[in-house]
Structure to design on (197 residues):
């Protein structure tokens, strides 16, 4: 009887050590930490926008449409409740990604407008804000890359045997990852034209 009990315990320990539960937990925590860093960098970017808009507004007041779009994009980003649970909801994750993409596009238009105002480009506040924004965009890229890699590791862990059995029992599914808005558009090489004057 005692031998059977010891054999059963040894078998259970062996099965549980190979089920991947702990590894999935470690990977999930990694995803949450990477996601927090992505949110931190996006928040930093959103916090820079009001100062950037105010600085540009002083020089380019008649560029109201561009300034309004930036402000609206920031409002959309701020309106999304970005919690760690967002990565488990593909639809909410897609809305978050679309709002951030809209923000990036609006900021790019704002910086193009700024190119038309030499006195704005010479303004020390604007140059400082632009440098901070560029640095933040780089941090966003790094944070997104880390998140993408961490999600890849997590998704592999919940989709491979024997961990997939544990994941299935616990109801864990692969997490959403960042994607490109329009893959076809980036597959086409950009057309470069030189004006001959």
């Amino acid at each position: 009887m005692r031998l059977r009990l010891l054999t059963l315990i040894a078998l259970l320990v062996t099965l549980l050590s190979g089920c991947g539960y702990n590894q999935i937990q470690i990977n999930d925590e990694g995803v949450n930490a990477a996601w927090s860093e992505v949110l931190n960098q996006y928040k930093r970017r959103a916090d820079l926008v009001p100062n950037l808009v105010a600085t540009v507004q002083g020089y380019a007041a008649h560029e109201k449409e561009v300034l309004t779009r930036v402000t609206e994009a920031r409002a959309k980003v701020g309106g999304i409740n970005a919690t760690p649970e967002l990565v488990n909801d593909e639809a909410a994750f897609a809305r978050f990604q679309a709002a951030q993409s809209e923000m990036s596009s609006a900021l790019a238009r704002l910086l193009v407008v700024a190119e038309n105002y030499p006195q704005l480009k010479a303004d020390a506040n604007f140059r400082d804000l632009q440098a901070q924004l560029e640095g933040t965009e780089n941090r966003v890229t790094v944070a997104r890359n880390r998140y993408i890699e961490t999600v890849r590791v997590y998704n592999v862990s919940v989709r491979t045997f024997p961990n997939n059995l544990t994941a299935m029992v616990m109801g864990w599914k692969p997490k959403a990852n960042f994607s490109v808005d329009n893959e076809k558009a980036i597959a086409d090489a950009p057309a470069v034209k030189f004006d001959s004057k």
Remarks:
- The chain has one domain: 24-167.
- The chain is about 75% helix and 0% strand.
- The helical segments are 2-17, 21-59, 64-79, 90-115, 118-122, 124-159, 163-170, 183-187.
